[in-house]
């Protein structure tokens, strides 16, 4: 297929850069069209994936029935129920909240990973690099093994995990700022140090409890699970937080681009690296804290998906962030399907599935960095 007519050469007497500017505008238009095509295609794929994923499981439900049940509960159509009460309960009460949570967690982890890779200028950064996941794990382990967080009522596990995540983020920020300026290297080193310390704290809690059943529960949660998904407050909170995070990161795409190039470039463009990095840390910490509190530690999504998004639509974050959100949503929906059906009737921790997919990608990335 032809790539289209080449841009016309500059007119005699035109500025020397006119041809280059025309080529730049043409390239920008092509990248925008490509981003629109990717966004539309991923949206369609996400809708199909949701319908299939809701129907998949120990009790299979056809996609047409899934669509009818969802339409009945949301739009009142069709008025007459042609499906059984058990199908209605399975689809609407159990699987729809779980699949929606997979969509939100996948999108949130993907965009947070993209932001962190720009923040610390490291292609191997992911949402758990700054110790947030380890903090949430310590809080969750304390809740499961010792009943900490009873004041949160039915949401003791989620509440304790969220508090642990925020405490870890605050500790990382204080350590990184102890020298005066929050740089990418200080954030990276502080996150790794705090993460290892909190991982050791979680291991100590498991050892000190002496409960084999509690240890299994903590391990399953550490590997990630969407089994806590229910209609109600937590799902709505996750939806609001993820939507705001995606919107804010996409709107600040140019600042993320400048930060990813370097602090000197950011300063020359009027962006304060320290102030912007601090705001990013707050936003990402809140989002990842909420996500880990409801799903546990699901690895590799925030590492793998941002790279795929940049390869699809380019490095500009204004385009890469929305595409990464959709890619992350689709990826985690299907990872959850595999986790539910691979070892029926038992459920496989979703973190195992994402690691099986992400590890080969990481090895490929490392190999390319080495050869480069």
TrEMBL record:
<comment type="similarity">
    <text>Belongs to the binding-protein-dependent transport system permease family. FecCD subfamily.</text>
</comment>
<dbReference type="Pfam" id="PF01032">
    <property type="entry name" value="FecCD"/>
</dbReference>
<keyword id="KW-1133">Transmembrane helix</keyword>
<dbReference type="InterPro" id="IPR037294">
    <property type="entry name" value="ABC_BtuC-like"/>
</dbReference>
<feature type="transmembrane region" description="Helical">
    <location>
        <begin position="282"/>
        <end position="308"/>
    </location>
</feature>
<feature type="transmembrane region" description="Helical">
    <location>
        <begin position="320"/>
        <end position="342"/>
    </location>
</feature>
<keyword id="KW-0812">Transmembrane</keyword>
<protein>
    <submittedName>
        <fullName>Iron ABC transporter permease</fullName>
    </submittedName>
</protein>
<dbReference type="GO" id="GO:0005886">
    <property type="term" value="C:plasma membrane"/>
</dbReference>
<keyword id="KW-0813">Transport</keyword>
<dbReference type="GO" id="GO:0022857">
    <property type="term" value="F:transmembrane transporter activity"/>
</dbReference>
<feature type="transmembrane region" description="Helical">
    <location>
        <begin position="128"/>
        <end position="149"/>
    </location>
</feature>
<keyword id="KW-1003">Cell membrane</keyword>
<feature type="transmembrane region" description="Helical">
    <location>
        <begin position="348"/>
        <end position="366"/>
    </location>
</feature>
<feature type="transmembrane region" description="Helical">
    <location>
        <begin position="228"/>
        <end position="251"/>
    </location>
</feature>
<feature type="transmembrane region" description="Helical">
    <location>
        <begin position="155"/>
        <end position="175"/>
    </location>
</feature>
<feature type="transmembrane region" description="Helical">
    <location>
        <begin position="99"/>
        <end position="116"/>
    </location>
</feature>
<feature type="transmembrane region" description="Helical">
    <location>
        <begin position="187"/>
        <end position="208"/>
    </location>
</feature>
<feature type="transmembrane region" description="Helical">
    <location>
        <begin position="35"/>
        <end position="61"/>
    </location>
</feature>
<keyword id="KW-0472">Membrane</keyword>
<dbReference type="InterPro" id="IPR000522">
    <property type="entry name" value="ABC_transptr_permease_BtuC"/>
</dbReference>
<dbReference type="GO" id="GO:0033214">
    <property type="term" value="P:siderophore-iron import into cell"/>
</dbReference>
């Amino acid at each position: 297929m032809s790539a289209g007519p080449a841009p016309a050469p500059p007119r005699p007497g035109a500025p020397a850069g006119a041809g280059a500017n025309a080529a730049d505008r043409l390239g920008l238009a092509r990248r925008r069209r490509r981003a629109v095509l990717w966004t539309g295609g991923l949206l369609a794929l996400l809708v199909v994936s949701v319908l299939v994923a809701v129907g998949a499981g120990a009790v299979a439900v056809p996609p047409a029935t899934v669509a009818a049940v969802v339409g009945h509960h949301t739009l009142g159509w069709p008025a007459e129920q042609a499906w059984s009460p058990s199908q209605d309960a399975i689809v609407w009460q159990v699987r729809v909240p779980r699949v929606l949570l997979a969509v939100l967690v996948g999108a949130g982890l993907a965009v947070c990973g993209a932001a962190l890779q720009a923040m610390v200028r490291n292609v191997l950064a992911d949402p758990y690099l700054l110790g947030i996941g380890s903090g949430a794990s310590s809080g969750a382990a304390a809740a499961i093994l010792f009943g900490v967080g009873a004041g949160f009522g039915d949401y003791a596990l989620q509440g304790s995990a969220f508090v642990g995540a925020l405490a870890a983020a605050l500790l990382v920020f204080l350590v990184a700022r102890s020298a005066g300026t929050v740089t990418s290297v200080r954030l990276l080193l502080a996150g790794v140090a705090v993460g290892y310390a909190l991982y050791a704290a979680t291991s100590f809690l498991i050892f000190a409890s002496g409960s084999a059943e509690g240890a299994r529960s903590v391990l399953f949660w550490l590997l990630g699970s969407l089994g806590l998904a229910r209609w109600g407050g937590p799902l709505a909170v996750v939806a609001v937080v993820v939507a705001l995070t995606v919107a804010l990161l996409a709107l600040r795409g140019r600042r993320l681009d400048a930060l990813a190039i370097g602090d000197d470039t950011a300063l020359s463009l009027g962006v304060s690296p320290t102030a912007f990095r601090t705001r990013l840390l707050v936003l990402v910490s809140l989002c990842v804290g909420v996500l880990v509190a409801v799903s546990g530690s699901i690895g590799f999504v925030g590492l793998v998906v941002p790279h795929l998004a940049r390869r699809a639509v380019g490095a500009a974050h204004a385009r890469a962030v929305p595409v990464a959100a959709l890619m992350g949503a689709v990826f985690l929906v299907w990872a959850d399907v595999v986790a539910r059906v691979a070892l029926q009737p038992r459920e496989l921790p979703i973190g195992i599935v994402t690691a099986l997919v992400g590890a080969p990608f990481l090895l490929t990335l490392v190999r390319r960095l080495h050869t480069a």
